[in-house]
Amino acid sequence: MAERGNVHLQKSTKEKIKKFNQLRGKEVQTNEFWDLVVITAVDEDQRSAYEIQITEKLERKELPLGISYHVFADPPGCKIGNGGSTLHSLQFLHDKYGKSLSGFKVILIHAGGFSQRLPNASALGKIFTALPLGKPLYQMLELKLAMYVDFPSHMKPGILVTCADDIELYSVPDQENVVFDKSGFTALAHPSPLSVGTTHGVFVLETAETPSICDMEYRNCSKFLHKPNIEKMRICNAVCKREGEEFVYTDSTYYVDYGTAMTLLTLLSEISPLTCEIDAYGDFLQALGRNATVDYTENTANVTKKEKGLVEIRRKIFRRLKGTALNVILLNNSKFYHVGTTEEYLFHFTADPCLREELGLLSAAFSVCDLEPLEETRACVMHSILHPTVTVSQGSVVEYSRLDTKVKVGTRSIISGCWIGTDIMVPSDTFMHSLSVNLDGKTGFVTVVFGIQDDLKRNVSSPADMKALSLCKVNLEDCVKLWGLCLERIRFSGDTSMCSLWNACIFPLCSDLKGSFVMSLGMVKALESGTKFTLPNNTTLTSLQETLQNKNLEEMLKFRKELYEDILRVNLRNSVTTNFIA
What we know:
Helix content: 25-40%
């Protein structure tokens, strides 16, 4: 059964990608694609960065043409979560299009946030995370649009809500389609182990009149559970069984029809201005279904930051949405992949044979490099130029980078946006990402370096407690001493009551890209060997947080564009040579 499903997933995914590729760079017809593509951003700076990249994609004809692409930023002030972003995006759309919105099919992709668990996506956005497939190279935006390419022609006007850091693959029977034509909310549901259910939303289904086993089934949901424990799943009858195995149906993407979208707009007027984070899944979907109760509004166990007013806002959401239908489409031959952390990124792009086969991932995508060793080591190279003498070891990823003669990258490492000079060795389990910044009116470069397993979100309340933070398996206080720095002079940017690797000012600002990499590499090698490393006098130190606030987007995109043009030039030359020999 699993093998058959895998074959069907491969076939279905290949067909979707082929269909989307035929739309790239072409004017789309009515009902052929989305009327509007909406992407959310955490602030105006991120919105501007997203719009620049979308404009470049359209110019390179990497996206379908003839439709509108919008980026909407969250309002300034406190974080409002993806639920708040959903509501504000609806308001922007309503203000811009008025009643015309009632005829539009919209995809809304949540892409706000700073991607602290996958920091190579922090500067340019997780929706622009590169994927090892496609010509031109796919980023997460293209993949989301490709996987849902069949939806617009089989849905009533409304809005499909999804996230930027996950991949959903599915197949349905021949001659059938996923149809969104019901009022209320309609959610996609995926069979998952009970352990997965504890970190996702879980659907409690109404009893089916005629139970059946098929790849796709339309059902009603009586209750939605948000990150429940296994005992709660059993008590609520969420656990299903097939062929002796227990599983639950978990959430991913959902659709709301136009009428329900207007109800959500009414809700926004009732809870504005937002003073806390709202979850587009937990806070909206738990209010739906015949057996929904107000009890969940008091449960803040899964809330990252317990904010004043959250419970009252949840009650207002419940009152406004209670009685709204929650329809579920069971995709029994489907898979859900999350690509939001460095560990997930490395696993899915290098070590996971399932996703590689189902999605057709490549060892080298839009790059100049020696392919054969990469396939042997299951390394992954994207949008990069590697000298033939370069070695990329098992399970490592290189993206948007230049690697010169005799560079060696250790195992399970991530190299992003870097220019690595001759005869340099990068240690295993190392994350290195180079960024361009504008500081004091000058363009500079910063290469941030972390261990693959480092927790950038872990924080302490004072710089005096930095010993509790760990960088590349060495506590931060010892790191500072090895670098010959004074503990008292180590600065943390932003909120100093939350000191973390994210805002620790420990990365040197350099005048050139290659020099920046060498400087930061020297620091991490000192940690590896336990020997001292001395920074040049008067070196400016900055944090990843501060670097992002001062990023030079144009310079980073210029570096990528130069790579793009060089790769095209080499590929064209190789193509001409091959044709000449033939």
